[in-house]
């Protein structure tokens, strides 16, 4: 996975941010480690287990930084991720996307290969499909019932009769119910941290109440899983919760900054780009990093501070005043001062390299095949870490 660049041959040169082919995805390893340590410390103090979501990193090398022993329980968003991480020894996996019947055979193959896999459902129809598959007596994944804690997406309400009906259908068919899982997706609507402790409590209460309703009906619910990066950082009480999931915490991004979860200096991921032109009459600087490098994500568009397609920094990661990627086409980024700014457009000659902080680290990362790994304040690329893709 890791291609070390610390000991080049005589014909090689050490890669650096001054020489790497642009656009390129850059990962500051010290900031990654600091972000991981910050969340782990919080969860340790709250007395809950951690099951990080590896969909943000999509890299075995990144995932190994999440655990003291280099391996541990993880959450994935695709079965391709489950295959990929299982091949590296990550065998305690929750597939946290609603299960479609056509994917049941793939989940069974993972279990048969030694993966302790949990899948997510929120309907009797999904339970029925699992029970039908289990009739042959072969390996089956465990099941978590998705709970709707804030009306954001999927799941059943904690007091919905469907909750117990799902559990009963699984039990009658001999499929293991492990517990409940919820995700406070509406926490992403917060601004400046306001409302996040309340969102975390709402998330906790919904999951715990659902688990208690199952137990009262005679169904064990040993797993009570909650998690989003905002609520994981603002929860004050996690009584009754057994594990927390979070993903983008490892990198952070401009959306998380706008929500109030991190500072700009905490953002570990960036894209390095090269200035390829100027349109002074329009106040534009052109780069070779368009939406193919940054993604189409405009997650800060409704924030008090709109960051365009990304916040522009110098090659060492220091932000320019109010300089954003104001627009983007496929391979062109248009740098411009934020509307209403009193700053002066910086002098960035042709060939100048800049680093752009992303709106959504997961989406930007998905545009690239590998990370150029650096240390804070240094330009030498010490390693290349590959990323996986696909479903």
TrEMBL record:
Hydrolase among the record's keywords? Answer: no
Which InterPro entries does its entry note? Ala_racemase_N, D-amino_acid_metab_enzyme, D-ser_dehydrat-like_dom, D-ser_dehydrat-like_sf, PLP-binding_barrel
Q: EC number(s) of the enzyme?
A: 5.1.1.1
**This protein's UniProt keywords:** Isomerase, Lyase
In what residue span(s) does the D-serine dehydratase-like domain sit? 268-375
Give the superkingdom in one word: Bacteria
**Gene Ontology BP annotations:** D-serine catabolic process
Q: Which GO terms describe its molecular function?
A: alanine racemase activity; D-serine ammonia-lyase activity
Broad class of enzyme this protein falls into: isomerase
Member of which family? Belongs to the DSD1 family.
PANTHER family assigned: D-SERINE DEHYDRATASE, ZGC:162816-RELATED
**Listed name of the protein:** Alanine racemase
């Amino acid at each position: 996975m890791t291609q070390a660049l610390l000991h080049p041959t005589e014909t090689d040169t050490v890669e650096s941010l001054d020489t790497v082919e642009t656009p390129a995805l850059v990962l500051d390893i010290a900031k990654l480690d600091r972000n991981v340590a910050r969340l782990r410390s919080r969860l340790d103090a709250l007395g809950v287990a951690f099951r990080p979501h590896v969909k943000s990193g999509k890299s075995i090398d990144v995932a190994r930084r999440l655990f003291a022993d280099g391996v541990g329980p993880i959450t994935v968003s695709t079965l391709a991720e489950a295959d990929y991480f299982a091949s590296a020894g990550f065998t305690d996996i929750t597939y946290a996307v609603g299960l479609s019947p056509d994917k049941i055979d793939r989940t069974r193959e993972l279990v048969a290969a030694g993966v302790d896999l949990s899948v997510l459902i929120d309907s009797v129809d999904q339970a029925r499909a699992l029970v039908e598959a289990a009739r042959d007596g072969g390996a089956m994944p465990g099941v978590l019932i998705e709970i709707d804690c804030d009306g954001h997406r999927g799941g059943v309400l904690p007091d919905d009769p469907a909750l117990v009906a799902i559990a009963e259908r699984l039990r009658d068919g001999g499929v293991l119910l492990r517990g409940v899982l919820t995700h406070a997706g509406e926490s992403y609507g917060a601004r400046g941290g306001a409302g996040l402790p309340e969102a975390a409590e709402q998330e906790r209460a919904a999951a715990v109440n659902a688990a208690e309703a199952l137990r009262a009906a005679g169904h064990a619910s040993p797993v009570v899983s909650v998690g989003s990066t905002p609520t994981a950082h603002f929860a004050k009480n996690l009584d009754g919760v057994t594990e927390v999931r979070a993903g983008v915490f490892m990198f952070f991004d401009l959306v998380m900054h706008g929500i109030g979860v991190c500072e700009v200096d905490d953002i570990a991921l960036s894209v390095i780009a090269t200035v390829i032109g100027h349109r002074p009459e329009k106040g534009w600087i052109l780069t070779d990093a368009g939406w193919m490098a940054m993604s189409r994500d405009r997650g800060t568009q409704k924030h008090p501070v709109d960051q365009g397609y990304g916040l522009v920094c110098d090659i060492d990661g220091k932000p320019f005043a109010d300089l954003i990627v104001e627009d983007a086409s496929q391979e062109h980024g248009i740098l411009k001062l934020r509307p209403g700014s009193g700053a002066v457009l910086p002098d960035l000659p042709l060939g100048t390299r800049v680093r752009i902080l992303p709106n959504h680290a997961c989406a930007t990362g998905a545009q690239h095949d590998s990370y150029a790994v650096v240390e804070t304040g240094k330009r030498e690329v010490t390693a290349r870490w590959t990323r996986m893709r696909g479903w």
